[in-house]
Amino acid sequence: MKAKYKTLGLKKGASQEEIQEAYDRLSKELDPITNNNETFFVEQFAKVKVAYSALMTKKKYDEEEIPVKELNWFLKLFTIGDKFSFRDFFDRAKKMFIEFMAIFFGVFLSLAVDQKRENSNHRDDNINNMKKLKVELQDILLYIDEHVGNLSIYHEFFMNQYYSWEEDSDSVFLIMYGEGEDAFAIAPLSLYEEVMPFDPPEVTYNSVQLDGTFRFLDDTLEHELTKIYSGSDLFFIKENAYKVDQSIVDDFVARISNKWVSDIGSTETQYNEFWFDNREYIQKDYYMKNNLRRRLKNFDNVTGQLAEHRARVEGAQHLLDSILTAKEKEIEIIYWVVDLDFLKLE
After folding, report:
1. Is the dihedral of CA 89, 90, 91, 95 positive or negative?
2. Cys bridge to 51: 4, 80, 109, 326, which one at CB 3.0-4.6 A?
């Protein structure tokens, strides 16, 4: 700072008025314009301006400084030296705040990148799990179609039997297939004890529940998948397809064991001859006809529920496919995911 005073031709500690007078005098003497912009005058004029600015600023700060003895106890805590300046205090506070924020955001971003890195490590696994889940949903659709196909076969057998129950024919409980030497007969009720539980695949779903893939999915999709794999609709399908159906079959079997055996003796229902020889007795047992009606109604219930379930699975499959397509279109830049579709302008 002593050099600045010397530049203006002053002694150290000169007053503000003296600094101003020296500057006014030298700026006129060294004015580049009046001195044909000679290099010497240009350089000296610049030095004078710098010295003047620095000294005036210091004087202004000095005037704002407060002696320590005039400070209260709180400001004394922030005072270094024998004087306190609010400007200096706020400058230091601003500098400290900027440094703190730089450190804070540096640490925060470092942790964020680490978190992104951890998520990135699982990203490919999650996408692969989503692809496996998509395949399993397709397997469920195939399973439903197969189950409905089998139900329709038994439904047709038993429906024909129900409506022909009272026909005056010894073969009323038999259905003939083929012609000539290739002809053969089947007794629909000989197949009555067959029960078809509904148990669609769920291996992939159970595994992704445990490894965090659901956090990678859309909430709507997760909700739909929960309904498909463990919702009340699936519960009633399984209930009707097995427990209710098995209960109806059990009543059928109990009727044969408790009633038919005592009335007609041998009940070898697996043979066509049994249904041919005992057709008049069986036709009069309306308990069994009603049992058949109950089962047909249950078949109708299961078929309707499966149609709704299939539509729900298809909807989830389409939603999963759209999410998977969007995820695969995203790119990662140093562990940060960028949605390219979001960046497109409308």
Report:
1. positive
2. 4
DSSP letter string, 44-99: HHHHHHHHHHHHHHHHHHHHH-EEGGGS-HHHHTT--SSEE-HHHHHHHHHHHHHH
Pairing of strands 66-67, 83-84: antiparallel
Grade residue 220 by pLDDT with cuts at 50, 70 and 90. Answer: confident
HSE (side-chain half, CA atoms, 13 Å) at 26:
24
Ranked by mean pLDDT, the top range of 23-27, 122-126, 317-321 is 317-321
Average pLDDT over residues 310-322: 93
Q: Which two tokens stand for residue 91?
A: 């400058």
Same domain, 44 and 144: no
The model carries a pTM of 0.61
Phi then psi dihedrals of residue 284, to 5 deg: -85, -10
Neighbours of 339 (CB within 10 A): 12
Domain co-membership, 233 together with 160: yes
Q: Verify that 27 and 155 share a domain, yes or no.
A: no
Please report, as a single letter, which amino acid is at residue 82: D
Under DSSP, is residue 197 helix (H, G, I), strand (E, B) or coil?
coil
Q: What is the pLDDT of residue 336?
A: 47
- CA atoms 11, 17, 21, 24: torsion sign: positive
Task: Dig out the tokens for 304 from the structure.
Answer: 């309707």
Coil, strand or helix: which one is 231?
Answer: coil
Average pLDDT over residues 238-258: 95
CA separation, residue 311 to residues 21, 126, 308 (Å): 93, 25, 5
CB atoms within 10 A of CB 200: 21
Indicate whether 275 and 178 sit together in one domain.
yes
Nearest of 320, 143, 313 to residue 227 by alpha carbon? 313
